[in-house]
Amino acid sequence: GAAELGPYRHYMQKEIFEQPRAIGDTLEGVAGIVPELFDGIGQDGATGASAHRVFKDIDKILILACGTSYYSGCTAKYWLESIAKISTQVEIASEYRYRDSVPDPKTLVVTISQSGETADTLAALKHARELGMAQTLTICNVATSAMVRECKLAYITRAGVEIGVASTKAFTTQLAGLFLLTLAIAQSKGRLSEADEARYLKEMRHLPVALQSVLALEPQIIGWAEDFARKDNALFLGRGLHYPIALEGALKLKEVTYIHAEAYAAGELKHGPLALVTSEMPVVAVAPNDTLLEKLKSNLQEVRARGGVLYVLADGDTKIKGSEGLHVIRMPEHYGALSPLLHVVPLQLLAYHTACARGTDVDKPRNLAKSVTVE
Ligand code: AGP
């Protein structure tokens, strides 16, 4: 009802603005990196499985999820391989459950789900177990869900109830949980120095404040949304950690505005999608740091030469300046490894305000359900 919405027009907007609180709650009580954060939730109050024992033993991670939760898994792969040095595979649950794959019992199967009831993710989990992978962990927003019951280990995000069909605060809290998971695995394997632990914890504790300053970019995003509302197509580019963020930005735009959007790893532009670029194709580039910008420069020029208009979400320490056909929003800071959590927020706001300008049903987009409990 209107009372619950407070000053917001829609749940999606309210949930975007709740992210500093949601991340704060998710990290509350995290005094240090301990694998116990992921211990199983034992039935009837009994102690669950020991995460430390599991983490020490595994040498691979298999992440299974759908939609936005799949993109948080794709982001975590970069963290897990670079910080915890553990080989990580991320699969769309509906693909994994039906394909022949090569199982490895020393794998930790990680499911990610807001609802904990997504049929394909639950079925993919069972499939992995049937293949002999007994170590299972879920990052889930609903403590009483089937997913949490089915997995040995669990981490409950504290996004709170998410009503908007387009997932926002669930995504960023999943990322926070996955970052903690990366550090906990690194620690169990003796790959996390005390200095790094302290530095990462400090960066995590700064997130609520950092998110608040990114939310303050809303007026600039509304300016972009006015342009996007008149387009039929959009292209999102990102690289590295921000490639999944580009994918998530495109998904958000599709879901709530019905604008056809695609995301590519920036380096792929000239391998095909450049052919799509015309003056009617806005191109969003996510978080190019200076090195990426150097590489992107010729691509950007090619986009400009075809009349394509660029919308660049520049990292805090880039020197890129706006010009004709090149719109720049500069992020307030440089965020290091946690950068994806911050860069997704302007993209959520872009989708939201573009939807408002187009007058779509933001919280209940056509043809979609909040949780997909059937195949
Ligand atoms: C996100 O905006 C979507 N509505 C959808 O992709 C969602 O993330 C997906 O269905 C997975 O749901 P889950 O996290 O509850 O498993």
TrEMBL record:
Please give the subunit comment from the record: Homodimer.
Q: Which gene encodes it?
A: glmS
The protein's Enzyme Commission number: 2.6.1.16
Record's function text: Catalyzes the first step in hexosamine metabolism, converting fructose-6P into glucosamine-6P using glutamine as a nitrogen source.
Look up the record and give one Gene Ontology term from the biological process aspect.
carbohydrate metabolic process
Q: Where do the SIS domain residues begin and end?
A: 51-191, 224-365
Q: Which GO terms describe its cellular component?
A: cytosol
| Keywords in alphabetical order | Aminotransferase, Cytoplasm, Glutamine amidotransferase, Repeat, Transferase
Q: Where in the cell is it found?
A: Cytoplasm
| Gene Ontology MF terms in the entry | carbohydrate derivative binding; glutamine-fructose-6-phosphate transaminase (isomerizing) activity
User: Which class of enzymes does this protein belong to?
Assistant: transferase
Q: Which catalysed reactions does the entry list for this protein? A: D-fructose 6-phosphate + L-glutamine = D-glucosamine 6-phosphate + L-glutamate
Active site per UniProt: K370 (for fru-6p isomerization activity)
Q: What is this protein called?
A: Glutamine--fructose-6-phosphate aminotransferase [isomerizing]
